[in-house]
Structure prediction request, 357 residues.
Amino acid sequence: MHHNNVGQRYCAKCGKTGGLLICDGCQLTFCSRHAAVHRQELTYQLESIMQEHSVLQQNIERSSNEYFHLQKIDKWEKESIRKIKIAAETARADLRQLIDKPKRQLARISRDIAYDLNSSMKTDNFSENDLMRWIKKLNDLRLEIKSSYSIELIEDQRFPIYPITVTHNKFSNIYRNNPSIKNPLNPNSEELFFKTTGPASIENSGIIVKHIGPDLDYAHVLGKQIYSQGCHTTRFKIVQCTLPYIIFFGCISSEVIQKVLNYNSSSVVGWFGYNEIYQHGIWNNNLAMHGYDSNQIQKNDILSLTFDCDQQQIELFHERLSKTHRLQVDIDKAPFPWQILIVLVHEDDCVRVLPKR
Prediction:
C-alpha cells in the first residue's frame, strides 16, 4: 500500500479522511487501522488458498491409485507365470509319454532281434535267408525309431498370454454418460469422429481429426455411429499424411471399448500402414497374399470404408485407384454393434469425414 496524496478520499471501512493508504491490489482506500485489518484479511485468504492447495496435493497422491494398480500388475504377472508353468509342465508330461511308450516297445523289439542273432551265432545255425531276414528287421527297426521320435513343438496361437498395458482411461462411462449412442443406427445420420485417446484433436464438430504430436505416438479415434445390420459406407479424405503412410482404418466391436482400445485387439479388423492388415489380433503384411499396398495411398486421396453387417465383412475402397479390399469379420470375436476405428501415428496427419453422396 502507499499514501494517498491526490484528491479527497475516504477510508472504505470507516469513512475517515486522514492518514489514508491505497491498496495496490484492489485500489481501495483505508485508514491506517483498517489498512492493517485489510492486510490481515488478505493473509487469511492466502492461508485459505494454501490449505486448498494442500488438499489438492493430498488428492493427487490418493487419486493415482498407484498401489492398487501395481497390485493388479503383480497379480497379472503371477497368474501369467502360473499359466505358463502349467502349460510347460503339461507339455513336458506329454513329451515324456510320447517318448517313453515307443521307447519301451522298440527296446523289446531290439532285445528279440539280439536274442535271435546271438542264438544263431552260438549254434552256428543260419543261412543267407536268415541274414536277409535280419537285415530287413534292422531296416524296419531303423524306420520305426525315426518315425517314433519325430516330434514337433507347436506354439498354439489360439491360447496366448495376453500382455497387460497401461493407458489413460478417457473412455470411462462413454455409454453411461451418452445413452443415445446405444440406440439403433439412424441411416440418415452422418458419421462423425466421437472420441479419441492419445494425441489427437477432433475439430469442426467432429468432421476432422488431427494428430497433434508427438510423432509416432498412437492416437485411437472412434466414430460416433454404431452398426449392427445393413450395409453402410463412410468416405474419408486424407487431408495430410506424412510418409511413410501409417493410418489405420477398420472396425471395432463397441462391446469391448470400455475394456480395450487397441488396433491389435482380437475385436478389431482393418488396414494399417506398411501393407499391414489386422484380423482379430493376427497380423499380415504379405502384399502378394492380400494385395493391399498402403504405399499407394497419398495426401488428398479418398478412401471409402464400408461395413457390410449382413455379409459380416468390411471393405476399403481407394477411389483414385478404383481398388477394393475386403476382410471378413468373425462376429464371435468382434460381436455387433461395430464402430469405426481410426489410428493416427504421425504428427499433423489429418483425416476428414466427407458428406454422404
The chain has three domains: 2-63, 66-148, 185-353. The CA atoms of residues 27 and 96 lie 91 Å apart.
